[in-house]
Write a structure and sequence with these properties.
The protein has helices at residues 15-34, 36-60, 67-83. The chain is mostly helical. The longest helix is centred in the middle third of the chain and has 25 residues, at 36-60. It is flat, with a radius of gyration of 18 Å. It starts with 14 loop residues before the first helix and ends with a helix.
Length: 87
């Protein structure tokens, strides 16, 4: 059976990706240079958004992920790294 993942997608210049990269790259660079809380918050936010997307994909397949437990563990680990002086 033939299946092309790109069937039905509009082909053109990805302006949304260019715009998001133009915004995200300076923010990421600033967070890396600042370090400490800024870096931990940026990475924590990215992890949070990534796991939201992953959990949505899992739910679409009928799997019930432990979303609340994962959130508590993620934010607890980030705070623990800062409180312990690692970040």
């Amino acid at each position: 059976m033939y299946c092309n993942a790109l069937d039905g997608l509009r082909v053109g210049f990805p302006w949304a990706r260019v715009l998001s990269a133009a915004i995200a790259l300076p923010l990421a660079l600033a967070a890396v240079l600042a370090g400490g809380w800024a870096f931990v918050l940026l990475v924590g936010g990215l992890v949070f958004l990534g796991q939201r997307e992953y959990f949505a994909l899992a739910r679409a397949k009928g799997i019930a992920p432990a979303a609340k437990t994962t959130d508590v563990c993620q934010f607890g680990a980030g705070g623990g790294l800062l409180w312990g002086g690692v970040a």
